Amino acid sequence: MLKSTSTLAGAKVITILISIVRTKIVASLLGPSGIGLVNLVTSSTDLARVFFACGLDSATTRRVAEASGSDDPRLLDRTFRISARTALIAGFAACLALAAASPFLSHTILGDQGKFWWYGFGALSLIFTPLLGVELAFLQGLRKSRDLALCQIIASFVGAILNIILVSLMGVAGGVAALLPLAVVSLIVHHSFLKRYRPVVSPPLEPVTAHHSVDLLKLGSGFAVNGIWLTASGWLNLFFITRYYGTAEGSHQVGLYGAAATMSNLYIGILVSAMATEFYPALVQAARDRSHLKRLLNQQTVLAMSVGMPATLGLLALAPIVLQLLYSNEFVEGAEIMRWMLAAMAVRFASCPLGYTLFATSSPRVIMISELAMGAVMITSSFLLLQVFGVIGIGIALLATNLLYLFGVVIIMHRRGVHWTLHTSALLLESAIVLGVCLSVSLLIPGWHGITICALVITAYSAHLLILIQKESGIDLALILQKIRSFLPKK
């Protein structure tokens, strides 16, 4: 698992570096308001995608992981054919829905009904994105870490070039227009790798029917709630911001919020991607062995904390500098919300392993209820705190929601006999204290004085963290250091 995590993490680092260059150029060309307008269109596109895909990618990963354990190529072939057909249907439905809603969205969100064609590019991209999700899920289910890593790098590099060219030529409209070629390029890249592993059985095990697609979507429905609520809450946050500040100032605030959210999610994406590829399929295969599940949960939690927390704390302390370097001086005022969002993301280093364990051992109904509750809390708290604190309130709401989700999943899994060990719990408590100290110092003591204090705390915490991991968890310190070095760019 460590090898897979390192492979995907290394790929993520490369894609992040590519994204940094792309973001810097695009942000310099468009500014916060331009970035905000692009985010308003892409958020609606993402909402349509997750709603109509209905957890298809997660359901495919689960089915592929189960089929790969049987060593029967006919099952893998049937799984892909069912998923691909369902993805095409979902893609065309999402495209039609977003295209039909484009005049309303253009008028309500952008304040200019004449820009409805911006949403048209997003609608056309939706034809391809569900199928892309299925192809990626197939590789995840087979745990082909190396191929997934190469796919990410190639698609990210080509997509960045296309994005920069279109923005340079067309401005904000180019950023929106880039949605379509980016989806097509990513689909082509992933398909070129997928065909190496997809078994083609003739004649097929059985013909694909509507019943198969419905069953797959039922399985994915529990997973879909998570994606729908997260995406819907993100879309609603942007909608709330534009309504609170007005269309003109709202696009500026959306740009700041989007920059903070991007920086906050970059690093957590490394571990979440690795968990989806290696950790989750392993949990599915061990779903009935509680002792094995407990061991996997604790190992992944310790690994996530050891790799994720120090870097996240560093970003939290250096938020203004990061925004200035990676975006521009215009984005520095988004540092405070970025800090709250980074604190919220830090909580996910503990909640993500638990969440995947819940997904692997629960029925779609249980997953759906838990995700509905989380989404309701997120949307409600974002709206209320926005009225009190402005855009900063959304970051505070995200932190509060992630904490509530963590406590809820801890209770559910503890009742099932899957929980953290005493060592892991102590490590999490120490991490929570350090997170609270760094967040408080960075907010209350601006400038280099606060950064210096945070640096001392983070250094002491990181050293203690590595010592504890080596001494009590059984994870080799040399292996951890090798993993961290693998994240660094090679000369």
Q: Outline, from the CA principal axes?
A: globular
Radius of gyration from the alpha-carbon trace, in angstroms: 22 Å
Unreliable segments of 5+ consecutive residues: none
Q: Find the structural class using helix and strand composition.
A: mainly alpha
Number of DSSP-assigned strands = 0
Largest sheet: none
Order of helices and strands: HHHHHHHHHHHHHHHHHH
Gap between N and C termini? 27 Å
> How many distinct helices?
18
Strand content: under 5%
Please tell me the overall pLDDT. 81
Query: Percent range for helical residues?
Result: over 70%
Task: Give a summary of the structure in a few sentences.
By secondary structure, this protein is mainly alpha-helical. 86% of the residues lie in helices and 0% in strands.
Overview of the structural elements:
The protein has helices at 2-53, 56-68, 73-110, 116-125, 129-141, 145-170, 172-177, 179-194, 210-245, 247-285, 290-317, 319-326, 335-361, 364-389, 392-415, 422-444, 448-473, 477-487. The chain is mostly helical. The two termini are 27 Å apart. The mean pLDDT is 81.
Task: For this entry, give a set of tags.
491 residues, mainly alpha, 18 helices
What is the strand and helix layout of this fold?
Elements: H1 2-53, H2 56-68, H3 73-110, H4 116-125, H5 129-141, H6 145-170, H7 172-177, H8 179-194, H9 210-245, H10 247-285, H11 290-317, H12 319-326, H13 335-361, H14 364-389, H15 392-415, H16 422-444, H17 448-473, H18 477-487
